[in-house]
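Hi there,

I know you've been waiting on this one. I reran it after we fixed the sequence typo, so this is the corrected version. Both the input and the resulting structure follow.
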Amino acid sequence: MDFIKPLGRQNQTSVTEFVLLGFSIDLKEQSLLFAFGLLAYLLTLTGNLAIITLIRIDQCLQTPMYFLLGNLSFIEICCISTTIPKMLWDLLLRDKTISFVGCKLQLYFFGTLGSTECVLLSAMAYDRYVAICHPLRYTVLMSQKTCWGLLASSWAIGNVNSIVNTALVFSLDFCHSNEIDHFFCDIPPLLQLSCSDTLVSQMVTFTVSGGIMILAFSLILLSYILIVSSVLKIRTAQGRMKAFSTCASHLTVVSIFYGALMYMYIRPSSSHSMEQDRLVTFLYVIITPMLNPLIYSFRNKEVQGAVRRVLRKNRW
């Protein structure tokens, strides 16, 4: 297989395609992983598509909160579709190769969607802050124009972050080996594979991506500090519980998302273990999008009411 081409006089070589090594498991375990991955993928598509459909057809869900939630579900579908189908294909046919361009596109889209979700979660925290701390001004502060602005800003930041990271990673030289110690093209294994000096790339990636994550997380933290401060002023315990219940699902999603993200990308490089990275990334890529509809929506009384209304209409 001609995956390495000469660069010239200096006996350097350039990789033209990569091999995704995936998980170090036997054939039986690969079959189980394929079955689990396929089931999780189908459940993720079904759950998130159901959320998007409910939000579009039910008038009671035409609010800023559900507008942002619908877009979160769309991002989850796109994000899992960037990595899991290729992983399932590799497990099924044992064809683990991916072209140089395909690897670059996978890294770009995964980075864009992950960063966009990161910022969108902070926009959703702001929505909860306005709803609880400024309920009388909610419709003004969370107008349609504001919602679209928050969404556009999330996508813009995600794209810029991913363009910078993808350009930096693929400006490096890849030679001697084309085997990526992961199940998809991600920044840490690609940097590890490169035969160039990756110090600058690591520093810029850590600064840009880490800065976005820390800033977005700080905005979420600030929103909830203000929310807690406001809720504690409510005199009745029932009122405080009702206010906190509107934030519980979002907090759960944020905890899972940022916990996995910071473990993968904010750790010191000396503590990196590719086997641990693969496991955590697998959970992050598959489990989080699958659980989000259950955590964020199906426990929500408004969504449950929308489901009942849709089923009632279809029955007649």
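Quick highlight: The two ends are 61 Å apart (CA to CA).

Best,
R. S.
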